[in-house]
Amino acid sequence: MARPGAANASATQGKRPWPGAEARRVAAIVLRVLGGVGGGYGIAALSTMLLSTSLPMPKAEAVLTASMASFAIFAGAIVWAFAARSVARAWLGLAIPAALLALALLIPGSGA
What we know:
By secondary structure, this protein is mainly α. The protein has a domain at 41-112. Helices cover 76% and strands 0% of the residues. The chain has 4 helices and no strands. The chain has helices at 6-11, 21-54, 59-83, 87-106. Helix 2 (21-54) packs antiparallel against helix 3 (59-83), helix 2 (21-54) runs parallel beside helix 4 and helix 3 (59-83) runs antiparallel to helix 4 (87-106). The longest helix is centred in the middle third of the chain and has 34 residues, at 21-54. The chain crosses the membrane at residues 26-50, 62-83, 90-109. This is DUF3649 domain-containing protein. Keywords: Membrane, Transmembrane, Transmembrane helix. Residues 1-20 are annotated as: Disordered. It holds the Pfam family DUF3649.
Protein backbone atom coordinates (compact mmCIF):
# COMPACT_ATOMS: atom_id res chain seq x y z
CA MET A 1 0.00 0.00 0.00
CA ALA A 2 1.38 3.38 -0.97
CA ARG A 3 1.73 5.92 1.76
CA PRO A 4 -0.36 9.12 1.58
CA GLY A 5 1.36 11.89 -0.30
CA ALA A 6 3.68 9.53 -2.17
CA ALA A 7 2.27 10.67 -5.51
CA ASN A 8 3.00 14.28 -4.65
CA ALA A 9 6.54 13.42 -3.59
CA SER A 10 7.28 11.68 -6.88
CA ALA A 11 5.77 14.54 -8.89
CA THR A 12 8.11 17.06 -7.32
CA GLN A 13 11.18 14.83 -7.38
CA GLY A 14 14.01 16.35 -9.33
CA LYS A 15 12.55 19.88 -9.19
CA ARG A 16 14.51 22.21 -6.99
CA PRO A 17 13.09 25.57 -5.94
CA TRP A 18 15.00 28.69 -6.81
CA PRO A 19 17.64 29.66 -4.26
CA GLY A 20 16.09 31.95 -1.68
CA ALA A 21 12.51 31.30 -2.84
CA GLU A 22 11.43 30.10 0.58
CA ALA A 23 13.05 33.10 2.29
CA ARG A 24 11.27 35.50 -0.10
CA ARG A 25 7.94 33.78 0.54
CA VAL A 26 8.36 34.00 4.30
CA ALA A 27 9.52 37.63 4.04
CA ALA A 28 6.42 38.51 2.00
CA ILE A 29 4.15 36.93 4.62
CA VAL A 30 5.94 38.73 7.47
CA LEU A 31 5.70 42.06 5.63
CA ARG A 32 1.98 41.52 5.01
CA VAL A 33 1.40 40.70 8.68
CA LEU A 34 3.35 43.78 9.79
CA GLY A 35 1.53 45.97 7.29
CA GLY A 36 -1.87 44.58 8.17
CA VAL A 37 -1.44 44.81 11.92
CA GLY A 38 0.52 48.07 12.06
CA GLY A 39 -1.24 49.79 9.20
CA GLY A 40 -4.61 48.48 10.31
CA TYR A 41 -4.05 49.80 13.80
CA GLY A 42 -3.01 53.19 12.44
CA ILE A 43 -5.99 53.45 10.10
CA ALA A 44 -8.37 52.30 12.84
CA ALA A 45 -6.97 54.81 15.31
CA LEU A 46 -7.05 57.69 12.82
CA SER A 47 -10.58 56.86 11.71
CA THR A 48 -11.71 56.62 15.34
CA MET A 49 -10.28 60.07 16.04
CA LEU A 50 -11.92 61.55 12.97
CA LEU A 51 -15.29 59.89 13.48
CA SER A 52 -15.51 60.60 17.20
CA THR A 53 -15.03 64.31 16.59
CA SER A 54 -17.18 64.68 13.50
CA LEU A 55 -20.27 62.51 14.01
CA PRO A 56 -23.37 64.62 14.66
CA MET A 57 -24.45 63.01 17.93
CA PRO A 58 -23.68 63.40 21.62
CA LYS A 59 -19.98 63.02 22.39
CA ALA A 60 -20.27 59.75 24.33
CA GLU A 61 -22.30 58.10 21.57
CA ALA A 62 -19.95 59.38 18.87
CA VAL A 63 -16.92 57.92 20.65
CA LEU A 64 -18.68 54.60 21.20
CA THR A 65 -19.82 54.41 17.57
CA ALA A 66 -16.35 55.31 16.28
CA SER A 67 -14.74 52.74 18.57
CA MET A 68 -17.07 49.99 17.38
CA ALA A 69 -16.44 50.93 13.75
CA SER A 70 -12.69 50.72 14.32
CA PHE A 71 -12.89 46.95 14.82
CA ALA A 72 -14.38 46.49 11.35
CA ILE A 73 -11.85 48.91 9.87
CA PHE A 74 -8.97 47.05 11.51
CA ALA A 75 -10.23 43.68 10.23
CA GLY A 76 -10.69 45.13 6.75
CA ALA A 77 -7.13 46.42 6.72
CA ILE A 78 -5.77 43.00 7.63
CA VAL A 79 -7.86 41.37 4.91
CA TRP A 80 -6.60 43.98 2.43
CA ALA A 81 -2.98 43.27 3.37
CA PHE A 82 -3.40 39.65 2.32
CA ALA A 83 -5.75 40.26 -0.62
CA ALA A 84 -3.47 42.67 -2.47
CA ARG A 85 -1.51 41.27 -5.40
CA SER A 86 1.86 42.28 -4.02
CA VAL A 87 3.41 43.45 -0.78
CA ALA A 88 4.01 46.88 -2.29
CA ARG A 89 0.32 47.24 -3.21
CA ALA A 90 -0.67 46.08 0.26
CA TRP A 91 1.49 48.70 1.94
CA LEU A 92 0.44 51.40 -0.52
CA GLY A 93 -3.21 50.49 -0.01
CA LEU A 94 -2.72 51.01 3.72
CA ALA A 95 -0.53 54.13 3.51
CA ILE A 96 -2.84 56.16 1.26
CA PRO A 97 -5.94 55.91 3.49
CA ALA A 98 -3.79 56.59 6.57
CA ALA A 99 -2.35 59.72 4.95
CA LEU A 100 -5.79 60.92 3.88
CA LEU A 101 -7.19 60.39 7.37
CA ALA A 102 -4.24 62.23 8.91
CA LEU A 103 -4.74 65.12 6.49
CA ALA A 104 -8.46 65.22 7.29
CA LEU A 105 -7.61 65.52 10.97
CA LEU A 106 -5.35 68.50 10.25
CA ILE A 107 -8.06 70.46 8.42
CA PRO A 108 -9.40 73.22 10.64
CA GLY A 109 -13.05 72.67 11.49
CA SER A 110 -12.88 68.90 11.14
CA GLY A 111 -13.61 68.73 14.83
CA ALA A 112 -10.18 67.71 16.05
